[in-house]
Amino acid sequence: MKKIALVTGATSGIGKSTAITLACCGFNLIITGRRKERLDELKSQLEIKYKSEALALCFDIRNRNEVCKAIENIPQHWKNIDVLVNNAGLAVGLNHIQDGLFDDWERMIDTNISGLLYITRCIAPLMIERQQGHIINICSVAGKDVYENGNVYCATKYAVDALSRAMRIDMLKYGIKVTNVCPGAVETEFSIVRFKNDTDRAKATYAGMTPLTGDDVANVIKFVINLPPHVCINDITVTPTSQASALIINRN
Ligand code: NDP
Ligand code: 8X3
Predict the structure, then answer these.
(1) Residue 193: which of 47, 69, 90, 56 has the closest Cα?
(2) CATH superfamily, domain at 4-238
(3) Distance between CA atoms of 10 and 138, rounded to whole angstroms?
(4) If you take atom 32 of ligand 1, which residue's CA is the nearest one?
(5) Global pTM?
(6) What CA–CA distance (Å, rounded) separates 97 from 155?
(7) In sequence order, what are the residues at sequence separation of 6 or more whose Cβ sits closer than 8 angstroms to the Cβ of residue 96?
(8) The sheet that has 235-238: what strands, in order across it?
(9) Which ligand sits closest to the CA of 238?
(10) In a 3-state reduction of DSSP, which class is residue 185?
(11) What's the N-to-C CA distance of the chain in angstroms?
C-alpha cells in the first residue's frame, strides 16, 4: 500500500514541488490551499502524470472550523497519514515595527502559527493512533536570526522553531518524528506576496544570486523522509551557496 503525505500550501512554491516530489517517491497526496483551480490542476497532474492518488482540500488554514471540518471529513482510507508537511505560510510587508500594519501582522500570525497549530492538532491524534508518522515544519532562516524589518515574520518563524522542538518532545513516546526545515532564499511566490504584487521589488530580492528553487527544498524533505526509521533529522537549514544567513548574501 502507498504511503500518504499531506502537504499544506501545495498550490505554489515549496508545497507544490514537495507534493510532486513525494508523488515521484510513491506517495499518495492530500494537498491543501485556498486556490481551488490550482488544487484541481495539481490533483490531475499527480494522478495522470505521476500515477499517484490525490485528494484536494480547499480551505483557509486560518479558519479553525474549516480546518477541523476538512480533516474530519477525509474518507477513512485517507486518514492513515504518514507524513504531514506544515508548509502553508507567508510574509506580508517589510516595515520597521512602528510602521507595521495590523492586518499584515494578523495575516502572518494567523497563518504561520495558528494555521500550523490547527492542522497539527487535527492530524497528530491520527498519527498517535498508529504510533507512527513524521511531521515536517517549514520554518526559515528567519526563525534562527532576526533582521531589520523582519520583526513579526521572524517572530512567527521563531514560534515554528519552538513548536518543532516542543512537538519533538511531545511526540517522542509515540515514535513520531518531527523535523524543522529552515530554508534561506527560495524563489517562489513568497516575495510577490510579501511585497503585495510589486513584482519588480520581488525580483530584486534574488538579484545577483542563484536562489534555491522549490524543488531544492523538496529534495531536502525527500531526503529527511527517506531515512531509516531509527534516524530523525531534528533541524536542517538549507540556503543558496551564496547565502550565509537571512541578510548576508554574496551578490554578483
Ligand atoms: P508561496 O507563496 O509560493 O506558497 C505559499 C503557499 O501557502 C501557497 O500554496 C498558499 O496557498 C499557502 N497559503 C498561504 N496562506 C494560506 C492560507 N491562509 N490558507 C491556506 N493556505 C495558505 O511561498 P513559499 O513556497 O516560498 O512558502 C512556503 C513556506 O516556506 C512558507 O511557510 C514560508 O514562510 C516558507 N519559507 C519560504 C522561503 C522563501 O524564500 N520562499 C524561505 C524560508 C521559508 P493559497 O494561496 O492557494 O492558499
Ligand atoms: C523567508 C526567508 O530571509 O526572507 O523565510 O526571511 S527570509
Answers:
(1) 90
(2) NAD(P)-binding Rossmann-like Domain (3.40.50.720)
(3) 13
(4) 89
(5) 0.98
(6) 12
(7) 148, 149, 151
(8) 54-58, 28-33, 4-7, 83-86, 133-138, 176-183, 235-238
(9) 1
(10) coil
(11) 49
Main-chain dihedrals φ then ψ at residue 75, nearest 5 degrees: -55, 145
CB atoms within 10 A of CB 150: 18
Q: Which residues pair with 28 in a beta bridge?
A: 4
Query: pLDDT tens digits for 172-227?
Result: 999 999 999 999 999 999 999 999 999 999 999 999 999 999 999 999 999 999 99
Ligand number nearest to the C-alpha of 190: 1
The Cα-based distances of 211 to 14, 44, 105, 192, 222 in angstroms read: 13, 29, 26, 15, 19
Tell me what pLDDT residue 15 has.
Answer: 99
Nearest-atom number in ligand 1 for the CA of 15 is 25
Alpha-carbon gap, residue 21 to 211, rounded angstroms: 19
* Distance from Cα 173 to the centre of ligand 1, integer Å: 31
Q: How many residues are there in the chain?
A: 252
User: Which tens digits make up the pLDDT trace of 100-141?
Assistant: 999 999 999 999 999 999 999 999 999 999 999 999 999 999
Catalytic residues: 153
In 3D space, the residue among 216, 210, 211 whose CA is nearest the CA of residue 236 turns out to be 216
Domain boundaries, the chain: 4-238
Average pLDDT over the chain, rounded to whole? 98
Q: Which residues contact 22 (CB under 8 A, 6 or more apart)?
A: 5, 7, 29, 83, 218, 221, 222, 225
Ligand 2: residue of 90, 108, 140 to mutate (most ligand atoms within 8 A of CB) is 140
Q: CA-CA distance, 70 to 6, in Å (whole number)?
A: 12
